[in-house]
Design a protein that fits this description.
Length: about 290
């Protein structure tokens, strides 16, 4: 037998908090402000506006670059008169029609792709063919097929949305782990129930990324199409507003139209999609 050495008991006296030093340091005012995401972005926008105003005043040529203050005055005047609001409402109405139709078709194609080999081959082939094709390049055909009006705009919007959403959704579904799939199958989920309860929640970050890309593609495609012909029943959207202001050489109004497009884009990205992201991906713990 070997000798067993007993370890002596060690007793530590409790120490007061003052002897530990600084454990938790309060944030300074600058650190608290810097941690606000919206405030950092607002600061960057203010810097851009100051640089714009400074450069425009130095250039001193309103036909090339109006000042930021002149652009804001034109924007406020357009909003007060209701012209910009009316044009923006027309653009957003057409955008929602094309975007929703494109998302629906993408959902159908993706559902077929994950359930059948033929559907998978069809989606991969169509995506490889049409995803690199600019939507605005189809505008001449759209004018021939659907005439001058909303139908042509919706057609090119569907093309701009469809392939980006379908590609990201399909990639997200394929990246769902085997464990998740087996759990759904063990619960007897099949078909649309398997997609709704297993695949969509697991692949939602990719789906949301596809929706963001599709929205951006659709928004800029719509404005470009409206700049080309843009009127429906004698009225046009923001793209046509910019085109009319350019013909009148009212450059502050041109920039006011561009600023309206930017503001709508910032609102959709930082409010609508951020709210969806917080209610889904953030709540589910799928985001750092």
């Amino acid at each position: 037998m070997t000798d067993v050495t007993l370890r002596p008991e060690i007793y530590r006296e409790p120490m007061s908090q003052e002897k530990f030093g600084i454990v938790e340091k309060p944030l300074t005012l600058f650190e608290r402000l810097y941690n606000q995401n919206w405030l950092r972005k607002l600061f960057m926008l203010i810097v851009i506006a100051v640089c714009w105003e400074t450069y425009a005043r130095w250039l001193d040529n309103e036909l090339l670059v109006p000042t930021f203050s002149a652009t804001v005055r034109a924007l406020v005047h357009g909003i007060a008169s209701g012209v910009i609001l009316t044009r923006a409402a027309l653009s957003i109405k057409v955008l929602l029609m094309g975007f929703s139709a494109g998302v629906f078709i993408a959902a159908v194609l993706t559902f077929l792709a994950i359930n059948t080999r033929l559907g998978n081959d069809f989606l991969e082939t169509m995506t490889a063919m049409f995803n690199p094709l600019p939507a605005i390049a189809l505008l001449p055909l759209a004018l021939i097929w659907f005439g001058l009006g909303t139908g042509s705009l919706v057609f090119v919007l569907i093309h701009s949305v469809l392939w980006a959403v379908a590609l990201n959704t399909h990639a997200g579904f394929r990246s769902v782990s085997t464990t998740h799939r087996m759990v759904g199958q063990n619960y007897g989920l099949r078909g649309i129930h398997f997609v709704m309860k297993i695949l969509i929640p697991a692949a939602f970050p990719s789906i949301l990324a596809g929706l963001k890309i599709g929205w951006a593609f659709a928004w800029r495609t719509l404005i470009a199409a409206e700049l080309v012909f843009g009127t429906t029943s004698g009225q046009g959207g923001l793209g046509w507003y910019i085109f009319e202001a350019k013909n009148l050489l009212d450059i502050p109004e041109v920039f006011a139209g561009l600023l309206s497009i930017i503001l709508i884009g910032l609102f959709i990205e930082n409010v609508v999609f951020r709210l969806i992201e917080a209610r889904t991906i953030g709540r589910w713990g799928m985001q750092n």
